[in-house]
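hey can u check if this looks right to u? its 292 residues, i copy pasted from the old doc so theres a chance i mangled smth
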Amino acid sequence: MFKRSKQPKEIVIDRLGDLANKTGKKTVLASFASLQSLPLFIEQDPDGKTWMGGPVHAARWDDIEDLANVAREVLVRTGTFQDTGLGLESALLSTQDGWSPKVSIVTVAEELQEPEHHQVRSLVPVVMDCIVRGEMHHTKRIDSDLSDEQMQVVHTVTTNALSSKGGRVLQAAVDVHVLGESMATIKGKLGPKPDRSDFSPQPLDLRGVCVGFHVGGEVIFFVDDTRGEVKLGFGRTQVDLLQVARLVKDRQKVDVRAHRTINKSGAEMLAFVAFKEVSVESGDASGLLGLR
């Protein structure tokens, strides 16, 4: 006959084996709880073993692991803590509405000094502010006493994180605690991906073979000797597609003048400008020929 066990406040899932082997008191620097309110329960079998029931596998950890990793990286890169001295600990937290996944940044030390406490209290809120508001708001907070070097670390780490995670909707509200004190509840979605665009065209010469084109997509498929297959957008440029088709059929080596730009996500875009036909036997070249 199973019976309900006394409900613990928190169940640790991952106890950080590496840190557990060190002497010293475990200190939770910051914690991130995803308020998913899972209907889990604790039961005890006749042998006295306690186990957790309910939809344990429905717990989602992605959001809080990402937030914890960003904050951890900043604490390390600013020199506040050594990389080997910080770890992430996973747990399930019991709340009034159910159970919530929780990830904490944990360190083991004899006793944290006030300068370290101060740095954690200063850095983590600024990191969360930048990751939620996005690159456009990477300005130093009036109430922050972080140095310019520390702010640069925060900007670099959060911008890199938003490059892949920006704009993502959080699965649930996230409660953030710093050194045991409630800091904020994050809702909605993360800040937008940073705008890495640079539309100033940079001339680029390619040499290779045309292998195809797509009229509707306004693109020529070109295999460059160095870059491999690339797409050359031609947009409104007037291109003689019959001549392109002959180049595709003959597999003749040609030089291409292109313009290189960068889109918002930081990806390279190549725009066709002109062909510079080269004789296979002699290597003699004509001038740049914009195909019309």
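Residues 23 and 76 are 21 Å apart (CA to CA).
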